[in-house]
Design brief:
By secondary structure, the protein is α/β, with parallel strands linked by helices. It has a twelve-stranded mixed beta sheet. The protein has a domain of 221 residues: Alpha-Beta Barrel (TIM Barrel), CATH 3.20.20.70. Helices cover 30% and strands 17% of the residues. The protein binds S-adenosylmethionine (SAM) and iron/sulfur cluster. Iron/sulfur cluster binds next to loops. The site of iron/sulfur cluster (SF4) has 12 residues, from loops.
Length: 349
């Protein structure tokens, strides 16, 4: 049974100064990780043997809620709950219920990124909380390839989760990491499958974050090559109207299917100039950039000065002042160390 929504911890209006970094970028989008744990072990994201954080290190439900509200007070309009796999955290629905209560009251969009293994059980409840769309990760429709990529045999659960989300009225966008050996040849068929089901699909270049037990050179597939292959099959037209709000994704429409493809190209085309987001880990570290290790410990501030909005605001200002201009990912040499040691599952995708 899901916990009942709790009273909002912070009733203050959306009036505090907006979060603007030293490059003039306004931060309106928070990605909030609720766990570093996951029931899959995607070979580009994690190693098979992961040491997860002790539960006491994770932000409590109340801390997650207070943090989210502090960001809303400072002008954040969109919150994406992520992980690890957000739906493996037991009290995650209570967070959706609470933040759902702020939709139309400072918050405009509440969503999540999920691997969809548990989405069938959650889809209806998420819709009830005001969630309108979800990003579901799916790297292959082939059972063996799915198992090779995720190191788990969960394709059926994922497909059931996606179906359930659509039945619940959630708009589903698929995220697919482009992988040189495991799915390159199957990407066009995955797109056709997604578009036939009225789902956009975003392709992502693999980023060198954390050790996974595989060499990034063997995984990395530049999006330029993917796009060339797609253009040999279809007519792609840029979607200028949506680029502004799309964050790092650049969208094209496929004339033959009517659907959209997003391209996230951290390697071949740096997208940082329009960055409108920050990420907070499940331990309360705010990372100002995916590609840098600089962070500020918001959990410490909340535990040292409980309920002190000013102290939290001051920490957010410090964080924003330190947001770097851009990342500098590269994948070229074999056996290279990751650009940053932490896994994507720590920072939240
Ligand atoms: N577990 C959820 C999921 O898989 O959707 C949410 C967290 S996951 C870290 C968020 C997104 O990051 C997923 O779409 C995943 O494919 C992507 N991702 C993970 N590691 C990545 C990497 N090294 N490079 C690029 N994308 C990555
Ligand atoms: Fe888990 Fe998502 Fe990372 Fe895959 S990409 S291991 S599903 S956190």
């Amino acid at each position: 049974m899901a916990a009942m929504p709790r009273a909002a911890a912070d009733p203050s209006p959306v009036s505090a100064a907006p979060l603007v970094d030293s490059f003039g970028r306004a931060i309106t989008y928070l990605r909030l990780s609720v766990t570093d744990r996951c029931d899959l072990r995607c070979a580009y994201c994690m190693s098979e043997r992961m040491t997860f954080l002790p539960r006491k290190d994770l932000l409590s439900f109340e801390e997650l809620e207070a943090l989210a509200l502090a960001f809303i007070r400072r002008g954040v309009r969109k919150i994406r709950i992520t992980g690890g796999e957000p739906l493996v955290r037991r009290d995650v629905l209570a967070l959706f219920e609470s933040l759902g209560g702020r939709l139309g009251d400072g918050l405009e969009d509440l969503t999540l990124t999920t691997n969809a293994t548990r989405l069938a059980a959650y889809a209806g409840k998420l819709a009830d909380c005001g969630v309108k769309r979800v990003n579901a990760s799916l790297d292959s429709l082939d059972r063996d390839a799915f198992q090779r990529i995720t190191r788990r045999d969960e394709l059926d659960a994922v497909l059931a989760g996606i179906d359930a989300a659509q039945r619940a009225g959630l708009r589903v966008k698929l995220n697919t990491v482009a992988l040189k050996h495991d799915n390159a040849h199957a990407i066009p068929d995955m797109i056709a499958w997604a578009h036939a089901r009225d789902m956009d699909l975003t392709l992502i270049e693999v980023m060198p974050l954390g050790e996974t037990g595989e060499d990034r050179v063997d995984q990395y597939l530049p999006m330029t090559a993917v796009r060339d292959a797609l253009e040999a099959r279809w007519t792609l037209t840029d979607e200028p109207g949506v680029q502004r709000d799309a964050g790092p994704a650049r969208y094209v429409r496929v004339r033959e299917t009517g659907g959209r493809i997003g391209f996230i190209t951290p390697l071949t085309n740096n997208f940082c100039a329009g960055c409108n987001r920050v990420r907070v880990t499940c331990t309360g570290r705010i990372y100002m950039c995916l590609g840098h290790d600089d962070h500020i410990d918001l959990r410490q501030v909340m535990r040292d000065r409980p309920g002190d909005d000013e102290a939290l605001d001051e920490a957010l200002d410090r964080a924003l002042g330190a947001k770097p201009e851009k990342h500098a990912f590269a994948i070229s040499e074999r056996n290279a160390a990751p650009a940053v040691a932490r896994h994507m599952s720590v920072t939240g995708g």
